[in-house]
Amino acid sequence: MKVDISKTYEAKEVEGRWYQLWESRGYFRADAKSDRPVFSIVIPPPNVTGSLHMGHMLNHTVHDVIVRRKRMQGFNTLWLPGMDHAGIATQNVVERELRKEGLSRHDIGREKFVERVWQWKEQYGGIILKQIRRIGASCDWSRERFTLDAGLSRAVREVFVRLYEEGLIYRGKRLINWCPRCMTALSDLEVIYQPVDSKLYYIKYPLKGRHNTFVEVATTRPETMLGDTAVAVNPHDERYTKYKGEAAILPLMNREIPFIQDDVVDPAFGTGVVKVTPAHDPADFEMGQRHGLSQISVIGEDAKITPEGGLYRGLDRTEARKRVLADLEAQGLLSRTEPFTHNVGHCQRCHTVVEPLLSTQWFVKIKPLAEPAIAAVEQGSTQFVPSNYAKTYFEWMHNIRDWCISRQLWWGHRIPAWYCDECGEIAVSRTDLDRCPKCASAKIRQDEDVLDTWFSSGLWPFSTLGWPDQTDDLKTFYPTTLLITAYDIIFFWVARMMMFGLKFMKDVPFKAVYITGIIRDAERQKMSKSKGNAVDPLEICDRFGTDAVRFALARMGAPGTDIAVSDELLDSYRAFATKIWNAARFIFRQVDEADRLPSSADLKHSNLALVDRWILSRLACVTETVNRSIELYNLHEAARHVYDFFKHEFCDWYLEMSKLDPERSKPVLLYVFETALRLLHPFMPFITEELWQNLPHKGDSIVIAAYPEFDSELVDERAESQTELVQEIIVKVRNIRTEMKVDAKQTVSVRIATNDPQLTQLLSNAREYIFKLAQVNQVEIVPKLSGDKLAAQAVAGGLALEVLLAGLIDVEAERLRLKKEVEKIQREVDKLERALANNSFVERAPKEVVEENRRRLADYRDEAAKLAEGLKRLE
Ligand SMILES: [Zn+2]
Ligand SMILES: [Zn+2]
Description:
This protein is of the alpha/beta class. Helices cover about 45% and strands about 20% of the residues. Strand 7 and strand 8 (about 215-220) form a beta hairpin. Helix 17 (about 565-590) packs parallel to helix 20. The longest helix has 28 residues, at about 845-875. The radius of gyration is 36 Å and the shape is globular. Bound molecules: zinc ion (2 copies). One zinc ion (ZN) binds near residues 347 and 350.
């Protein structure tokens, strides 16, 4: 009985069947007790509110290719999945739902609100995890974690308490980034700087005790002057040394402020004099600390002027700016304004302009944590792929500031600190407190704030494995082998995991960090929801087949390189899947139940035809290249090689050549196809499983079958070069047939010139392939070609050959056709030459257009020359 598969490849139908089976059979489960070598990796936990986008699809494809290969190689392979509770993002979603009911979170209170978020999470959260299954990601779902689950919450507390006890977490009044809309502190990383067209205002500050003498300060934020506590110049700025030790009178507020000198003031900015507002500017805050200046907060958490702002109290910050400027103008103190573009910080979540504010928050002292994290990468304990990302990491780590970890939100890990109203004690505790540990009073309350989401995701590589308990999982799978992430979260996430991993596990969290690019559209624009060019990966998978999309991403995605996704690209890999399917149908027609899969030893001992030795040799070499490329994380190289092998060498050549002697070639055909499916499986898991199951095979599933390994005994360089020569002859004869418009049903006669007895032998042995694949009826080996004008000549692998065309083509009709063709192309050449000789076109047209024209011109000239040559032959 012959195996029968459907005529066309129905990706969706095939993909629907396999994943559940793989999962239910436990193929993706790691084993903490196994003594096999370990490969472990944790998923970058997607937000619980998230849904799959192309960035995830790329990231998970890279993961899955690497993970599946390791599993097939016999590693004890763990890919740990899970989700992040995503503080602000999730809280915003549920607040939006509440608003539809006309409620705010304050109306229902903290406890009820958090309950609502959990309900929401159970109902809608984690859609993305189902989607991740849909694209074939082979995660160990028995180990799925959530940053807010009980185990991870315990780890968070443990870390907080230990850092606090060591003095590495402190509570303090510092200048922080504040979002007046989200009403929460933000870390430096949650602030996005964007250039804004604004103005630079020059304001005159009178000097105390000097009649009609002013210094001019330049500022982009005149409303903050209400909180000025000094004016400053550079100590080396000779224009102002005469005012050293004096004071200015702050306009509008009539406050005396000192005239100070500080190295950070840039003499070239504005007039060289700057106002100092320690409560509203990070650089001024630090200057204020150096000079013991007071901090006056004039803008509040609601972005309105505080009572400290005198007459301006209660005004919104933009309204206050107008009023301050109008009043300065009226008093003749606004000397001029200039247009000015500068970077303004915006909230990453809601794009409101961020206000630097003084606020009492919790901080992590970062330097003692950053130093070992820098050293670990310097020493190569963790490597970046590509390596240039280490530079970005160092730059950021060297300039890192203390990390503000408290957020004024309700959804997240609540800060484990309690304040005693009786004795003022602050107690930090692993367990919830109901009495003050110092005075035993019951009048204590827990800090209202929660921790920054990145605090818990920073623990992900070990908290997910059971830390602080010394579990088998932790012992077996930490440190993880690899982390795969896009370049935009090196700082947010990678740096934090490095710091926490080294601190609490005394070892790096991963030995390598693979940085993927980002996905762009066909016009190379970054995909985003707001631009409307984002594509839904699941829809794309429905249209082109998941395997094809995965393959396209792996093929195009060199580490750190962006990928432009277009329909044409995806279509070409759908065609690849179809090609494999069709090859399988051809093969299955020859297979019946009695056939078994030969071993490589069987093949080595049998009498193989030239092309059989050739394809086995090619398979061995491609296996070596694919393994080496994936090992170096060059998935795009591996994909290219497996593609070229499968599509061109196996399908285009070998299947055709094997038809010459199908019974003899059958064992090789089966062996190569089965091996190539295993080689391809990590990239295209679904189609390979479907076909592999229909072939004679060993084992239950391709998922756990062995990954092909290089077999040097199959390499046969002589068979390769000989087969390539035969192929080149076939290609050249086919080209001539096409160019000369020889009827497809006509066979032709070929002469090949050589005196070499070995080549003569080879060519006469291989003539059947030339007959069959190039429609040839005779191959004549001659010492010299005829030079007959109706014999088209070519060179193949250094051998001159000619195809005899007398009687096969209508010479006069062909001559006329070629002549017309040459004239037509010449007109195109002239047109392009004129355009490119025109300087104003070359200068004004977009560079790509000019380049494209140059390329077309070269192509046309080439074609014209070839046709002219053919024409000459006929005259
Ligand atoms: Zn905001
Ligand atoms: Zn107390």
